[in-house]
Amino acid sequence: MRHFFLPGLCLMGAFALSACTDQTARVQKAVQSVKASDEQSLNEIMLTVADPREAVAYFQKGAAAKPNDMSMLRGLAKSLVRAQEPEQGAEVWAHIVSMPGATNEDRVAQADALIRANKWKKAEQVLNAINPTYETFDRYRLEAMVADSRKQWKKADSFYATAAGMTTQPAGIYNNWGFSKLTRGDYAGAEKLFYKALSYDPNLFTAKNNLVLARGAQRKYDLPVIPMTQVERAKLLYTLALTAVKQGDVATGKSLLKDAIDTNPRYFPDAQRALDALENNPNG
User: Fold this and answer.
1) Quick one: which of 241, 206, 243 has its CA closest to 226?
2) What are the CB-based long-range contacts (under 8 Å, 24+) for 29-34?
3) Cα(84)–Cα(61) distance, rounded to whole angstroms?
4) What is the pLDDT of residue 8?
5) Which of 65, 96, 139, 173 is 20 to 30 A from 219 via CA?
6) Which residues contact 246 (CB under 8 A, 6 or more apart)?
């Protein structure tokens, strides 16, 4: 009678082995999923808060181990740009866009790196090769900068306006647009755009400094009514003073430098040196 139990036992053993194999596969899959998740998290950390040089080393090692892993290559390109190596970053982006699976986002990033490397003509070629139907904030931001570099003002203004309408945080683009107007000599137009930038980000100091430059160029030597710390106030007075001196309004410049020195809660060596130079200049 015991022989009748053997087929059943064998069958049960087969089921147990199958269940064990399935469980092992599920565990391995789960482990791989955790590893992939951890790698993605580590990639994001390296691209945001890690030291740029450490990030470059990390992604170089990853790309060497997985030469066709586009996430590693993208991380390397971005890290090189963060590490102030845009030319090398552009080379990595060029490799990425030559690979199957490259996207228009990759091409825009390549153009961005080329602009940072001061390779404007190549950046323009890359942007021109992107399908016109691909419309993003970054694309129009770069298109505006390229148009600026070619002094195509109407085109630049159109691109800046389009880019500003494609983001909920347009302070940076309004600041860039204002600086473009400043370099063209449209000081009143620049002033309006810097005010607009500050309406979206009251803490953007570059916009505050540029606003003072635009006002100073119009010989408006009083500080604008905008939020500022005491240290910022001193720095803006210093900027205004140098603008006044540059325009030949030396007496006003001296007065503003003295205000800057008195306003700064700490010693302000740059302002003091500028004032001393003016005081010691017989023609000042």
Assistant:
1) 206
2) none
3) 19
4) 40
5) 173
6) none
Question: Token match 């015991």: residue?
Answer: 2
Largest CA distance in the chain: 124
Expressed in angstroms, the distance from the first to the final Cα of the chain is 120
pTM over 0.85: no
What is the DSSP-derived secondary structure letter of residue 227? -
Specify the 3-state DSSP secondary structure of 267: coil
Residue 131 has what DSSP assignment?
A: -
Per-residue pLDDT at 21? 52
> What six digits make up the tokens of 231?
């240290």
Residue 140 burial (C-beta neighbours within 10 Å; 0-12, 13-18, 19+): buried
List pLDDT tens digits, range 248-270. Answer: 999 999 999 999 999 999 999 99
Quote the radius of gyration of the chain (alpha carbons, Å): 29
Predicted confidence (pLDDT) per residue in 44-95, tens digit: 888 888 899 999 999 999 999 999 999 999 999 999 999 999 999 999 999 9
The pLDDT tens digits for 196-210 are 999 999 999 999 999
Looking at residue 156, its amino acid is A
Burial 161-194 (b: 16+ CB within 10 A, else e): ebbbebbeebbbbbbbbbbbbbeeebbebbbbbb
